[in-house]
Amino acid sequence: MDKLQKYTWSAADSVTKEQVAFAIEFLLGRQPLDERELNIAAHIARRFPAPRLELFRNITSLPTFGTGNRDFHVILFDQMLRRRVFGAKRPPKVNLFCVGAARCGTTTLSAMVGQHDKIYTSPIKETNFFSHMSDGVSPNGVGTDIYEMFYFGWDGQPIVTDFSPNHLRYRHAVDGIYEYNPDARIIICLRNPIDRAISSFFYMAEHHRADNILDFFSEGMATFSVDLPQSEAWYSAKTILRQGLYHADVVYVKHRFNNVLIIEFSEFKELKRLYKRVCAFLEIDFEDDDRLSILDKPLNASLKDDNPSVHSAESILRDFYAADIRKTERECGIRLET
Length: 338
What we know:
Elements lengths: L2 H5 L9 H12 L6 H13 L3 H11 L3 H4 L3 H15 L9 E5 L5 H8 L5 E3 L7 H5 L10 H4 L11 E5 L7 H10 L4 E6 L2 H11 L1 H4 L4 H10 L14 H7 L3 H10 L3 E5 L6 H12 L25 H25 L6
Parallel strand pairs: 1-3, 1-4, 2-3, 4-5
């Protein structure tokens, strides 16, 4: 099989171990260390619509990456980015960031703006570059030249986006974005944090493996701290709780950037109106066509039911978030509807 053909994967669900092994050799200059590494890499590649990029991100995020691949920058950037990916089309700096929050409509928003002819969205919606991969954040951090890998398909669009919801709660991520492009436009999607937390619980159920939602959040609150370590699991109760404390994070973003748009979750009920608002914010023409119809679907519900533990969890979450909700509503001039 031709090398280029090996590296061209038609779809995530058709990826073979042979192709994954080739990708590891192509990216890192070595064979998989063992069958376990190959199986993990294949699992990653099969889960995502852009498996090569997701595989790259996961490999470079490993704690051991920096010690075993010291020549990575030269090999990958010079050989792959410049010659094999971009050619003559090197993208401009990303100039639109949606920094949060998770489970607040960011996926729908990314798909919506991606319909516009003047906007390019990365094949990987959440690069998490400034929170997990960049210099000064990760022990094996990489520079913004590598960040361009996420935008290899850019084709001249003036607006280039990054939709990484977890950037909102990391000051170093906000600072990193500012240092990278201080003129970037920022979008923040917010949702009633009680509904957001319950939605996250069910969305991440296969990871945290907690059966009782009340116990899950009660235990998280017992040892909660706003300043969670970077190592805290993304699906833990404490992480889910922290993601809903918006006020200080929003204030920090608004302090750093001049162009910030706040979107409340209920606005997704009228996509065309929201799309017009986003286009006005970006100073581009509103394109009224049928492409938005593919996004029409019920809003992501919190999966509330008659389970008493869900209603009990709502009660403790309401107390936990009450003060922050009031401050966020005043700061943003919105109502966090339930």
